[in-house]
Automatic annotation (TrEMBL):
SUPFAM superfamilies: Thioredoxin-like (SSF52833). This is DsbA family protein. The keyword Cell membrane does not apply. Transmembrane segments: none annotated. The keyword Cytoplasm does not apply. Keywords: Signal. Gene3D superfamilies: 1.10.40.110, Glutaredoxin.
Length: 248
């Protein structure tokens, strides 16, 4: 077991609260000031919001892959501030900025504990196009999704002692994740198969640790625009930054 995977599995269930809402320091937006950027048409018969690309950083980029403004969010599916951003900003971001072809939005997972790792695996259990909608559903129902985790913390910690191919399967059963995802198109059999793939969830955990160190991401949500960290974690803070950069 790699060190990064061991951290993801052994991190206490309370880690999500401690790590949520940080990482917005060291902002550098001076280089992002720019003139208004003209809309870029999507290929005929398509919408930019329907196009998803898996990036070299194992992120899920929604929109024009060649958009002049590239927005990246490091998010945890267990982070309340990330959930607030998704609820308040996702529709406006998609309709007003992604669909113009001017902004692309890449979602990258930062893992805050074993339950977060299970959720990150489950939202990837269908097609790349489903990752953003499923993540949005988790964010919109976060308290409901996590209630089983809070109610069964000891049993979940015990599940981590199981063999790799069984630990996430058992964790999701204890937490009650299967019913939530089954109602959203991921059958229990499909979910169990995804969670039994230890190599897949280990890759998610390793990427989270490696990139957090590489980019000094100490909490979620953390946003980057064209490679510059931006001092924002709510939509009301982020939208003016996009507009000043030319998305208007």
């Amino acid at each position: 077991m790699t060190l990064s995977l061991r951290f993801a599995l052994l991190a206490p269930l309370t880690l999500m609260a401690a790590a949520c809402g940080g990482g917005a320091e060291e902002a550098d937006t001076a280089s992002l000031e720019g003139e208004a950027i003209a809309p870029i048409e999507a290929p005929e018969g398509t919408s930019w919001a329907d196009q998803v690309t898996v990036t070299e950083y194992d992120g899920y980029l929604k929109g024009n892959p060649d958009a002049p403004l590239k927005l990246v969010e490091y998010a945890s599916l267990t982070c309340p501030t990330c959930a607030r951003f998704a609820v308040e900003g996702d529709d406006a971001l998609t309709e007003n900025y992604i669909n113009t072809g001017v902004v692309s939005f890449e979602l990258r997972n930062q893992i805050h504990g074993p339950h977060d790792l299970a959720l990150a695996t489950l939202v990837r259990c269908s097609t790349p196009e489903a990752v953003h909608p499923l993540s949005k559903q988790v964010f919109a129902n976060q308290q409901q999704v996590l209630q089983g985790v809070f109610d069964n913390g000891e049993a979940i910690q015990q599940s981590l002692n199981l063999p790799p191919e069984r630990r996430m399967v058992q964790l999701a059963e204890i937490a009650g994740f299967y019913d939530f995802f089954a109602a959203r198109g991921i059958s229990e059999d499909q979910a169990r198969t995804c969670l039994a793939d230890a190599e897949a969830y280990e890759t998610i955990a390793n990427n989270s640790t490696t990139q957090s160190e590489e980019f000094n991401v100490t909490g979620t949500p953390t946003f980057f625009l064209n490679g510059n960290r931006v001092e924002a974690n709510l939509w009301a803070q982020l939208e003016p930054i996009l507009q000043r950069a030319g998305a208007r």
